[in-house]
Amino acid sequence: MINIKEDEKLNVLNHSCAHLMAQAVKHLYPKALFWVGPVIEEGFYYDIDLGDVTLTEDDLPAIEKEMKKLAKDGKRIIRKEISKQDALTMFKDDPYKIDLINRMDEADTVISCYTQGDFTDLCRGPHVETVKECKNFKLLKVSGAYWKGDKNNHMLQRIYGVCFPTSEELEAHLQELEEQKLRDHRKIGKEQELFMNDELVGSGMPLWLPNGAIIRKQLENYIYEKEQKLGYHHVYTPCVGTVNLYKTSGHWDHYQENMFPTMKVDEEEFVLRPMNCPHHMLIYKNKMHSYRDLPIRIGEFATDFRYEASGAVKGLERVRCMCQNDAHIFVTPEQIKDEFKKVVNLILDVYRDFGIKEYKFRLSLRDKNDKEKYFDDDKMWDEAENKLREVLNELDVEYFEAIGEAAFYGPKLDVEVKPAVGNNVTLSTCQLDFLLPRRFDLSYIDNKGEKQVPVVLHRAIFGTFDRFTAFLIEETKGIFPLWLAPVQVNIIPVNNDYHLEYAQKIYDLLLESGIRLELDSRNEKLSYKMRESQTRKIPYTLILGDNELNNQQISYRTFGSKETTTLDIKEFINKIKSQIANKE
Ligand code: TSB
Ligand code: ZN
Predict the structure, then answer these.
(1) Does a structural domain hold residue 374?
(2) Are 362 and 469 part of one and the same domain?
């Protein structure tokens, strides 16, 4: 999908189209006031104050109609430079523009405005020459947006759109957007009964249905087996902790806005945990350790609760109750690099297994000015950040750096992916932490018999099972590989009167072999049942009729194929079992 913001020509065109939209909105809603209208990856938006009016998608066609009219009329877009003082006078009745002008540097003595017909907007530009060029556009959606992104401020209306030089390009783009929507994990999740939500449970608290639970269980087994072989030890710990636990760790001071509020039980105050590190620190501390014991790798499939804004919550991708594929690895300073490389290699290995090719490594660093989020120890931070850079360079993996994305306790290497709909998200993460081991007073005895503080790597390969499953649904478009498919085989007797008994026998044999399957004995037409088996994306559909019964064989079709293959039942069982074992 094209990144409009990064394409210079499209960037300008979309920005001009945002102005065109604002002009149309002003014609239809004369009291409208405009905040900012930037170009984004997906096109453009404009944040608009419409007083008491709340727009819905139904209002967009009228705005589009007015835009078309204005584009046809084809006014020139004229730039004019004015002084800050003139700008303040010109926009004196518009508090939003005054706010913007006042925020401009004193050095910005010249301010530019752009005028098209009866509409003038404060803007740096550049723009296209006439509004005629903006005729191939589409308004995509409307949503509420807090002024300046601050939830304490009032709500503005944000209208999104996109514009292309030709109608063909626009059509192709809209088609691609439609296809993306079909991949949306929320849509497939509903169709295939993978998960559900109910407001009685709460927003961002999905319920995993049996089909989704099968996929999750397979993912758990898969990563557990890998971690076993790499020397991880799994534990179980409670999903609450006392406030004091999180005061000790620093979450209370640096992470509270992401946490659920406290609850009082007897005289103690508890919180639902947002992370599992503190629990694992205590497990480490339960025993004395020698340098010979390290690295110690403590893993857990651990449930966490985080406050996410209700507008940000999304299917399984962004939830308030999640399960991390978490581990904390305790190492000596000398072991940091080696262990970090092992984690990165595990990430790469898993991505290979799942055929994930489109991802980016992001080195998430602290924002030196944000003293509230990040503990104030420049030496410790610099050391941690440089260590990560060294590892990445030695591994020769491509990455980009992002300031202000680090955890409060240390820098991270995150893996970013693009969902079908919406902004990029982080899947895997590996984080370096010199802080928490100190706060929990952890130690090991080094080879000279002296007490030392270990370093901790926090890592989650899948990230959370929730987000990874969301991503997997979109990657596969709901066509899961055999080993993950909730139903692997669907058996259809050609005629219930003659073939049901044989079908039941095959069903029992496969069930005994550990295959997940169904027997469709409904009194429906064969063609209907076969079509349904395809729409449900079941990997193998067995069709059992006279030939199969007489020869004690089975015939199958694989998903998406019209070809029928006939095999002896033993042969089929071996084939399917080996495919599952090899995760083909
Ligand atoms: C890796 N303490 C570390 C842990 O040891 C930690 O919690 N890191 S985290 O904050 O980055 O979270 C781990 C992963 O959880 C992220 O990489 C991301 O993939 C996933 N995640 C974070 N927030 C959500 C959410 N709201 N919904 C679903 N998954 C999430
Ligand atoms: Zn952690």
Answers:
(1) yes
(2) yes
Give the total number of structural domains in the chain. 3
Helix (H, G, I), strand (E, B) or coil at 113: strand
Cis, peptide link before residue 126, omega less than 30° from 0 = yes
Tens-digit pLDDT string for the chain (584 aa): 788 988 999 999 999 999 999 999 999 999 999 999 999 999 999 999 999 899 999 999 999 999 999 999 999 999 999 888 888 888 988 999 999 888 887 666 678 999 999 999 988 889 999 999 999 999 999 999 999 888 899 999 999 999 999 999 999 999 999 988 899 999 999 999 999 999 999 999 999 999 999 999 999 999 999 999 999 999 999 999 999 999 999 999 999 999 999 999 999 999 999 999 999 999 999 999 999 999 999 999 999 999 999 889 999 999 999 999 999 999 999 999 999 999 999 999 999 999 999 999 999 999 988 887 887 788 888 988 999 999 999 988 899 999 999 998 899 999 999 898 888 999 999 999 999 999 999 999 999 999 999 999 999 999 999 999 999 999 999 999 999 999 999 999 999 999 999 999 999 999 999 999 999 999 999 999 999 999 999 999 999 999 999 999 999 999 999 999 999 999 999 999 999 999 88
Same domain, 400 and 466: yes
**Whole domain around residue 538: which residue ranges?**
489-581
Ligand 1 pocket by Cβ (under 6 Å):
275, 277, 306, 308, 318-319, 322, 324, 326, 328, 426-427, 429, 458-460, 463-464, 466-467
Asked if residue 508 and residue 453 are part of one domain, the reply reads: no
Rg over alpha carbons for the chain, rounded to the nearest Å, is 29
- Number of the ligand closest to the Cα of 327: 1
| Three-class DSSP labels, 132-195 | HHHCCEEEEEEEEEEHHHCCCCCEEEEEEEEECCCHHHHHHHHHHHHHHHHHCHHHHHHHCCCE
CA of 379 to the centre of ligand 2 (A): 21
Q: Give the residue numbers marked as catalytic.
A: 277, 306, 324, 326, 328, 412, 458
The CATH number that applies at residue 545 is: 3.40.50.800
pTM: 0.85
CA of 567 to the centre of ligand 1 (A): 46
